[in-house]
Task: inverse folding
């Protein structure tokens, strides 16, 4: 039976009807049209679906839409402001840390969350933050470089 | 795509427990969901009802109660790993919790879920065992306390009766010096389940006669394993080469890793367990 949930996504409030077995990822993509988060594995291993629930990064393929009733969600679309991309995104572009681009939204969300928690992350912190993020173009080196470079652009 | 189920959320143990009893195997508890949703997707679990317990008061957070630490079953792995009491008194648990999944998984995965999932290599369970953790299990009929070591019945099977919910984990703060370590090996450095994990705790490490050793190992038996025979042998002993040789023998006799594991061969697991045991003889 469908349930009504209220949630805030990237600062906008929504009230929608969802099936209990729809994941948050499905709700964001197919109901609300936020196609930034991607479905890669669907079992929490690839990280492409990473979004924030109340500012904490989670794998949205392992969360049900009904579980986030009343929550504040941020997707990759919410990182840019006034059509300007965030510093983390700029660092990814500068370092060419994007190949096919499928994993990029999750990678950016993970690194952005890292910078909100750790002011001066080292390589180990970056690798720990990217532990559950797979890039099948195997471009990890540029991604780690971008994560380091983001230090120059990141504004709290 | 997940197969259809109904979702119901409760705000009291009593109501959740009554519902769980009424619906038996048709109902399954949902906490962080990081195991349950994966199992539903793989069709290994086909619940008619998912019973969300995250609305129940008193199941979240970590409290110090005189000489005890009480961990709510819904406390996430990241909350456990970052908690000041856990860091101060139970560093082996901090390390175990921090290796579970990845950062995003740990923001959802709960310590109670990690226990009740019943995995023989659960990364919070292996450390909890060497701290002699107890669990409080609640239902509409009341509460019972059980040693965590008695809670596991087999892979994926735990000692929860109809309508029972894991409520708290209780740890006694050691009033003696301890030294301990969490060990873990997996196939890749990225997110992966443990091929083997192990915790060693030594009470009174600097006094040979008062020494007590506790050892637990994951992924070497159908349940997370406390190696009592080895603990008894090592307690009160000087850690010499001769003792190590005998300890190795006792350790290997107690391990029974299954053939056909996706993650490591029995031979590899046994070699790693012996390697980690050597920490006692090199560092204490």
Result:
């Amino acid at each position: 039976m469908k349930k009504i949930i209220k949630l805030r996504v990237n600062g906008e409030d929504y009230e929608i009807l969802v099936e209990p077995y729809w994941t948050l990822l499905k709700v964001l993509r197919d109901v609300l049209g936020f196609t930034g988060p991607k479905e890669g594995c669907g079992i929490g291993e690839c990280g492409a679906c990473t979004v924030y629930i109340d500012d904490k990064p989670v794998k949205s393929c392992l969360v049900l839409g009904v579980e986030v009733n009343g929550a504040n969600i941020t997707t990759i679309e919410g990182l840019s402001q006034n059509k300007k991309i965030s510093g983390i995104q700029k660092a990814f572009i500068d370092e060419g840390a994007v190949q096919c681009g499928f994993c990029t939204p999750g990678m950016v969300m993970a690194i952005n969350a890292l910078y909100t928690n750790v002011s001066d992350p080292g390589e180990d912190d970056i690798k720990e933050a990217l532990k559950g993020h797979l890039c099948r173009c195997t471009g990890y080196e540029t991604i780690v470089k971008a994560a380091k470079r983001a230090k120059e652009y990141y504004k709290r | 795509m997940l197969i259809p189920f109904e979702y119901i959320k409760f705000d009291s143990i009593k109501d959740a427990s009554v519902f769980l009893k009424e619906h038996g195997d048709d109902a399954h508890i949902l906490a962080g969901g990081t195991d349950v949703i994966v199992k539903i997707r793989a069709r290994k679990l086909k619940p008619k009802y998912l019973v969300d317990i995250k609305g129940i008061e008193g199941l979240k957070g970590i409290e110090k109660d005189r000489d005890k630490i009480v961990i709510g079953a819904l406390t996430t792995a990241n909350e456990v790993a970052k908690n000041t009491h856990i860091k101060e008194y139970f560093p082996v648990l901090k390390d175990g919790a921090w290796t579970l999944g990845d950062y995003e998984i740990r923001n959802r995965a709960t310590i109670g879920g990690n226990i009740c999932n019943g995995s023989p290599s659960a990364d919070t369970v292996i450390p909890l065992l060497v701290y002699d953790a107890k669990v409080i299990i609640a239902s509409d009929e009341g509460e019972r306390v059980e040693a965590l070591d008695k809670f596991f019945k087999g892979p994926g099977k735990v000692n929860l009766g109809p309508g029972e919910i894991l409520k708290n984990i209780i740890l006694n703060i050691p009033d003696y010096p301890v030294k301990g370590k969490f060990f873990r090996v997996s196939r890749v450095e990225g997110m992966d389940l443990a091929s083997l994990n192990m915790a060693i705790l030594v009470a009174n490490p600097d006094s040979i006669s008062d020494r007590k050793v506790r050892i637990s190992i994951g992924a070497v038996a159908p349940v997370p394993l406390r190696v009592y025979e080895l603990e008894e042998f090592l307690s009160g002993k000087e850690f010499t080469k001769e003792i190590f040789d005998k300890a190795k023998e006792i350790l290997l006799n107690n391990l029974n890793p299954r053939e056909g594991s996706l993650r490591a061969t029995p031979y590899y697991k046994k070699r790693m367990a012996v390697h980690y045991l050597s920490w006692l003889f090199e560092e204490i």
